[in-house]
Protein 1
Amino acid sequence: ITRGVMSWRHDDNEEDQEEEEGFGDDASLFSRKDFLIFVVDARTPMFTPTACGELPFANVLLVARKLTIAKIRAQESDQIAIVFFGTREKSNLNDFPGIYVFQDLDVPDAESIKQLEGLGDVDFSARYGHADGPVAFHHVLWVCSTMFSNRPTKDAHQRIFLFTNDDNPTGDDRSLRSQALAKAEDLKTLDIDVDLYPLGSTFNTHTFFEDILTVSEEDDTGRNVIQRIETLEELAESVRRKEFKKRSLGKVPLIMAEGIELGTRLYNTLQEAKKPSPLWLDAKTNQPVKCKTLWVCADTGTLLSDAQMKYWYEYGGSRVVFTKDELKDIKKFGSPGIQLMGFKPMSAVKRFQVTRHPYFLYPDEEAIEGSTVAFHALLKKMLEMKKVAIARFIPRANAQPRFVALYPQEETFAPDGMQETPPGMNIVFLPFADDIRNVKVPTETPRVAERGQIVAAKKVIRSLQSEFQHGSI
């Protein structure tokens, strides 16, 4: 039995840990790496100036360079690759014609950025060439799948960013089309997402790419809404929106009453940007070091397992011993979920009671069928009656329950028809009683310094000044 005293105090960093660890079954989402492959059409039309006088291929390279730099700054463990299709030369592990892997899937660095910058100074037609005409698009998807499968980390987000101004790359060849659709289904099975960036005002996604693209699991419409891209600014903005994969914090049921539950998902709409944790490297190999903690018995020197370790708390002059499983059971206050307690007017939730940023709640039809209809019926009624729901929120197992207010949010649209705010509920964390203090503001008139005191203070300040010379410190 190890000699340790249990800590019963509240962890001040618990709220931060909730955000970092995630919720429920989706706790591993934020620790997953992002593997991204830029697939760029390199046929002649991509090198033809648009009505704006811009080259689509050059715009894609500029955006790829910006995204690479952003990945280096934000996520140093993510990996990026760049693949050209429709080229005369070939370079890929599958040895397929017309596909050139310009940069293999790897962590971006300064050298990869230099290669992208240097590509603008190279005669692309002479170095790589163009293979115009129908494309064996299933070969393109196959090469990307091979690149993903060769990575040592299997549990990662795998995405393909596809850039082209041809809405029918296989042409009238039905065999190529059917093979491309079959390979696209294989990618969906492997959880590989394909995001299309259509370049050109006449691009029609229904011609070929509608069945190739991946519909996000959070998209309740079941369809892809893609805007045509004509300028560099539009392309950069479109890529920026998808730079980070949209994902939920986790799934939690909204418990209306006994036996009545709705499937919902949690989203984090605002997150504080924190300095990344330091990475320990081996001095000889410069490789990341994995830290491992082992507990050793002080009497025998043998390694201790979890089953051999106990915890105790002194009570009434004696030690009460607990196992690790018993400690977990003590911290359990119920199953994860949002238990509806009642309703209050919207005016009951004051602005000063918002002590931290809220989460966003949205229905999950996959968890419980019919959740979307019931959720939106509840949302509509709360907006009509101007009510907020008071609920008990347990985000995950072993988490302390919190009382929250479910504040309804109405769907709004911009003048151009694009959605500005989605329909759903904001989870506002209600403060504890001791979180709010009654600050007594002094009502007496503040004292004002006399003229002589102000003059004397100025003399003291001037006397403290000195001439500064560079290099004197």
Protein 2
Amino acid sequence: GAVIVSILPFFDWGQYQFSSYSFNCGMTMESDSDRSYFLLVLIMSLLIPVFIIFVCYSLMLYVVMPSLISQQRMAHSSRKEKSADSSSDPKSTAIEVIEEQMTVRVQVT
């Protein structure tokens, strides 16, 4: 996409202009051709990549969330079983809960 956008001004579609004030080049917006070139650059350089990133992250969440939910359910059910089986002091059960949460986080990452 970047090659296409870079080559098009050589074929008189779009135009870059040097600004001596800020010592950089920028797109001009003087004609309809320049405006359409700007829209093409906007679509190819921003909108399409953002859309692709959004779709990829959504698919990753779609794949990962069921296993994460099942791990949390298993940890929660094992915590219930341990608390029902043991009648120890609250400090040791709190430590066990923290240890289980840490192992679930390590397994996810």
Protein 3
Amino acid sequence: VSTQSTWDMALMRTRIGLILVLLLCGLFSLSAAKIFFEEEFNSGWESKWTKTAWKADQQGTLEITRGMWHGPDDIAFGLQTKSPVKFHDISAKFPEPISIKNGPLVIQYSVKFEQVMDCGGGYIKAIGPDFDPKNFGGDTPLLIMFGPDICGSDNKVHVILDHKGKGYLWKKKPQAPNDKLTHIYTLAIYPNETYSVFLDTHPLENGTIAADWEFAIPKEIPDPNDKKPEDFDDRMYVEDTTEKKPADWVDEEFIVDTDAPKPEDWDEVKEGKWAPPKTKNPKYKGPWQQKKIYNTNYKGIWKPKTIPNPQFTGSIIEPYTLGGIGIDVWQTKPGTIFDNIMIADSLDDAFTHAQKVLDNLVAKEKEFKVEDDVIEEAKAKEAREKMQEQMKMQEKMKAQEEVKDEKVGEKEDLQ
């Protein structure tokens, strides 16, 4: 075999090896990504979800519906709140607890406020593995609460995170759309304790858990044994000791009223020696104080030195172990549709499904909304014109009454 042929065979084997490595890597990455839970509220959804008995007399009705604007049937159906001034609570317990340690925890779902929300929530809750679906409700400890909450002018997207049994509010408060359209909310929490929030696959907010929630344990703390030196002067301004009180400065607020007469019936035997009362001193200038001047010995604000925090373990939160997902909302007006719930460890998988919803459902909703807006505007215009016509009639009747009153007055004057 020639040298050239040997080189060609070696090169071919190398290329084949590289191709196999790439294929294996691709297969590994595909197998690594996983959708742990998915709900589109199609046939068979009832077997996974449990309606609560918590506050049973205050629970509203939840129904499967396509909504007033809808797309293809395979993505159109969702779970809708139907009862005014009621709770709507339902949950699904996972067959096995979900704990994601090597990738992002991705929670995604869609919500649509058909009623144009005035006061109520549209969020979902991720719950620990020990919860009881039959008693799921506002008292159930949550791990994550995520989604929009609207009440009047208070409009925000919640991300509440559990830390050692207590829920902590997100410092950021982005606003949620309230336009009768389906919107997709996505939350990703990464192993490095950063996070991202997306609306319709577009970035809404991102940051670190340490900066945006109050429960973060600091790496360093003030040294409790570090004391301020006695010669450390932290007074920025001091009194000007060279300044003296003026000789004519009067700081006596009250003086004896020398003009006050002694009462004629004053009995010194019974009441003691009479003394004139005190009166406000007209020359009083207030307490005298030396003016303040900058302290040339000022060293700044003293702070103790910091030391490593013995409670800091290198991570702020441990990976959550999820046992289920739930809807727990109270609404004055019903009509909210929940759908397309997903728990995964891949944003790509979540966004692939989200894009399907945006392209096939939301795009159709927008077409319906344009038509509906035209109809609503026509109705509003008709109502305005009717109101204007009524006002004109009222003004005409008022003018006629005024003319009538004037004629009656003239007639009475003649008599």
Protein 4
Amino acid sequence: MTAALNSVELPMDVLRRSFRPNEQHDRGQPCCREVELALLLSFVRKCVRRRIGGNLYVCGSPGTGKTLSVKELIRQILQWRDTTGALPYVSHINCMSKSPREIFADILMSIRVQTGTSKAICAIGTERGVEADALRQAVKGLETSLIIILDEVDRLGSKGEQILCELFSISCERSSRCVVLSLANTTSLSDSLLARLNGRDCKPCMVNFPAYSGRQLKKLLTQKAVRVPYENIIDNSALQLCAKKIAATTGDMRRALSFCSEAIDRQTKESSTATVVCEHISIEHMVSAVKQLSNTDVENIVKLLPQQTHFIICAALKQNHHSRFTKNIPLVELLETYNTFCTRAAISGLNACDFLDACSTLSDYGIFGISGAQDPWRQKIHLCVSRDVLLNALRDKQKMISKVLKLV
């Protein structure tokens, strides 16, 4: 009897599991990403059926459904056949913590495994370009399409540009059946990479995954809540608040799920000391969770950022030092202030391209908001996090702040 009772999940446990990212539940057509998935399917299907190469750059902020959509794309691809009746080969590589040589080697190994032959494996030397040449030779021997998917390609930094340039070039060669999809959290290709790709006439098509809107986030959260077989277990107003807060900053669904999980934890803790247990998530639980996680998340993120990015945050704080309200700061002015700080601290600053990448990263984390023209140097940034939270996150850098900012 006791064992049977212990095996029954409590309502909050069921709800908590529902709000975790779960591949089994999230399989199939991604909700609110039907248009983007259709664009991916259309592009790849055209290349496979016509037996031609192609390049696609899939971009968007973290937590906007890119990886989920690509997983559904792969699932459907593996059911296709080209005009000869052959299934395409798929090589899905996560670029996190990989060198260019490891990425090329992984692709070659994937070809070997799927073709069942060893001819695709070529010696990977140490000279520049040997890795790309080995892949180029392997691709020439394939009788069906090879779809290469590179996830988190922006984590490679400047090395990623070389990889993309080589792969995009291979897919554009005559009679190539190589289709390259690169996934990145940056919303555009750098000017230097675009210039190199234009020079080789292999500029990719682009599919952008915009941040989820409040309406979309509410729909996604509600979709997870209704899976729980208990009525009114979570207030509609609590989900609405969560969606609204996330949409106002990053539009990151994963962050929205974190807020919901924190609200559930708070309700569970509250119930453990209550005389009467109420299995219900109220808007008060969500308000508390949003406040706590917003500050904690930012502090943890900031602590892990490199020193150069700390200096960019300091530059933004300095620009807002005498302002009562958060103001919009032209990126050009922010760069000037940042360079002044680097000179004052006697360290080498980031170049303009890396500076823009760092600002984009801060925007992805919801610390900066970026608005304005498409030209990055005409854009403006504003702080999405309170001054006190950022200073608290940098409290271990008090000497740096005192010396450079003269704020504390």
